[in-house]
Design brief:
- The chain has 405 residues and is an alpha/beta fold.
- The chain contains 15 helices and 14 strands.
- A hairpin with a 7-residue loop joins β3 (24-32) and β4 (40-45).
- α10 crosses α11 and α11 (298-322) crosses α13 (339-346).
């Protein structure tokens, strides 16, 4: 069985084609800057070198058309005809409280998804465009929607509710949803595998640290709490997002600075100009921040320490909520690759039974591995995330379940 995974952003389309018998990638690529003069298509197939071409790509439909044509190319393609694709899996950022699991696409599901536009106006419309593009190009191939928010829907109400008048939850669905759920789900399953225990017997904290970051508390395979909220803005310090702040700061800024009377400008400030970029004044890229810290840049050092401290706070809080943990997992770009950030986060957490081996932590590797000491009560792990594979698995399972009905 072959599964095509599609991830549509506001100006991009990423894809991966999997052969599910061995869960291996057959082909993968990215159409970037859709609708812009600098648009390009970068792709690669198994046993083939990467190719990159600058092309005029005016819409998501054109991008998907380009991808399908490339997959079908007689000389370099990966499939002989579109019927080799059993199902298409779509990454959907926000499922609100309507979707607690992956679903097979129907007209009713499309209608409910459109009702989520107001809650995620920057992401869901782009995801929806991808669905329409696939429907046009692959009209007889079923689609499955896999939601970033779904894994977190096991949170208890006292964890996901905000202490504002209840009517805003009833009328506007304002509550904590959480994000990166597909990643947290994948690495928690892998953690159970390498620990050699059923996930149903484990307490885990998973730290997805990238340009966007979130921490999740998992008890017996169910999410108890997660750091992101109604939107991906709150939680730890991120590349360009501010993370947790006093909400009254927003009111203060609105009243003092006229340029922020426009809500869009304020949204840009908190989502795109804050975090590591806002504090350092240099970059949102952790690698740049770390290098600047090593040369004595005080603002870069402050940004670095704020990031690590904010993650440490969530780990400590979730340790208490879970009443101890079996494992701590680092994943995503920063979590997998930044030894200095992992080291500072775990520093002085001995009281929680968290002790990392500095030598193991400093090893550069793309493999799953333990970085905790032999004496550490908590197993600290680095597990590379694989959201595309998780989407493919979910899509396969959803399709097979539907066929049994």
């Amino acid at each position: 069985m072959k599964v095509l995974v599609v991830n549509c952003g506001s100006s991009s389309v990423k894809y991966t084609l999997f052969e599910m018998e061995n869960e291996k990638k057959i082909a993968w690529g990215l159409v970037e800057c859709v609708g812009l003069p600098e648009a390009y298509y970068k792709r690669q197939a198994i046993n083939a070198k990467e190719k990159k071409d600058s092309l005029k790509i005016t819409s998501h439909i054109k991008a998907v058309e380009l991808i399908i044509e490339d997959l079908l190319d007689k000389e370099t393609g990966s499939i002989a005809n579109i019927n080799e694709i059993a199902v298409v899996g779509h990454r959907i950022v926000h499922g609100s409280d309507k979707f607690s699991e992956s679903v097979l696409l129907t007209e009713e599901v499309k209608k409910e998804l459109k009702e989520c536009f107001s809650i995620a106006p920057l992401h869901n419309p782009a995801n929806y465009d991808g669905i329409l593009a696939v429907e046009k190009m692959l009209p007889k191939i079923p689609s499955v929607l896999v939601f970033d928010t779904a894994f977190h829907q096991t949170m208890p109400d006292y964890a996901y509710m905000y202490a504002i008048p209840y009517e805003y939850y009833e009328k506007d669905h304002i509550r904590r949803y959480g994000f990166h759920g597909t990643s947290h789900n994948y690495v928690s399953q892998r953690a159970a595998s390498i620990l050699g225990k059923p996930l149903s017997e484990l307490k885990l904290i998973t730290a997805h640290l990238g340009n966007g970051s979130s921490i999740t508390a998992i008890d017996k395979g169910k999410v108890i709490d997660t750091s992101m909220g109604f939107t991906p803005l709150p939680g730890v310090v991120m590349g360009t997002r501010c993370g947790d702040i006093d909400p009254a700061i927003i009111y203060y800024i609105l009243n003092k600075y006229p340029q922020y009377k426009d809500g869009d400008n304020l949204n840009t400030l908190m989502n795109k100009k804050s975090g590591l970029l806002g504090i350092s004044g240099l970059s949102a890229d952790v690698r740049t921040i770390v290098k600047a810290t090593e040369t004595g840049n005080k603002k870069a050092k402050l940004a670095f320490e704020m990031l690590c401290y904010s993650v440490k706070k969530y780990i400590s809080a979730y340790y208490g909520i879970l009443n101890g943990i079996d494992g701590l997992v680092f994943t995503a770009g920063i979590g997998e690759n930044s030894a200095s950030i992992r080291e500072l986060i775990c520093k002085n957490l001995h009281a929680l039974g968290i002790e990392i081996d500095i030598n193991k932590n400093n090893i550069t590797s793309n493999e799953e591995r333990f970085i905790s000491t032999q004496e550490s009560k908590v197993k600290v792990m680095i597990i590379p995330t694989n959201e595309e594979l998780m989407i493919a698995r979910e899509s396969k399972l959803c399709l097979l379940s539907a066929e049994k009905v």
